[in-house]
Amino acid sequence: MSTSTLEQRLAISRQTAAIQRQRAVRTVLRQAWLWAIIIMGLIFMITPGVWMVLASFKTRAEIQAVPMQLLPETLRFENYARAIEYTKFPRVFFNSLLITVAITVANVFTCTWGGYTFGKLRWPGRDFVFMLLLSTMMIPGFLTLIPRYVLVAKLGLLNTYGGMIIPFLTGTFGIFLTKQFMTGIPNDLVDAATVDGCSALGVYWRIILPLSKPIIAVLAIFVFDWAWDDLLWGIMILTDREMWTLPVAIANLRAQVGNQFEYQMAGSTLSVIPVILLFIVLQRHIVRGVALSGLKG
What we know:
This protein has 297 residues and is mainly alpha-helical. Helix content is 75%, strand content 0%.
């Protein structure tokens, strides 16, 4: 092998290595920017929650201190005791849990049945009705508050569990979400069950529901979180102190004890625990459910 040929090969090898290094640097820089954006977004999202937890152990003077005092001088667990006392926590927690679980369970069945009806059953006008249903999502929620309140009042459901539950037994978004997921379930399974004599209800119960666990987990956490945090509707129809939910009780703390922000922060910290626990339990299904429902349809 001549010297010139060897030198050419070495030059090509050096050029290739330089190109690979440049590509590696560009890849690292792109990933660094991506991770920087992700970390900044994460900090932006969790900072209010961290501050809420820290403020729940502070005094009002520490919360209002300028410049801001991040850590409390001492951990004041009595703030939680006062928040539990003033909100009548056991009662309002029971009210919130009962209402939220009822709404969540109802939505799981009504929305999955709606998703199955629009995604797997064949009937005249199905697509038109589905588009008509989706169009209701364009109506701002506040426009339906007064008609809903009047209807609930005329039915005698003010200050009742029924008034908090019945208007929210199903939801258009939940039907859309489950329908998108169910389009990915093979039609062969449904057809085979139908040929074997299984009714539409039987197909839904024996095939669709077991295969829809990921999207059911997503739907459950969405509905539970929304129903658990719902304040506006509770303030509108719940005037009886014994019927208050947890958000309503926390919102009324200011009327009871004045600007004792530490009690509100303690109550708010207690209120987020059930949602976090539910997410931990269902997290195995949530990512898969969101991914599949977003890719189908």
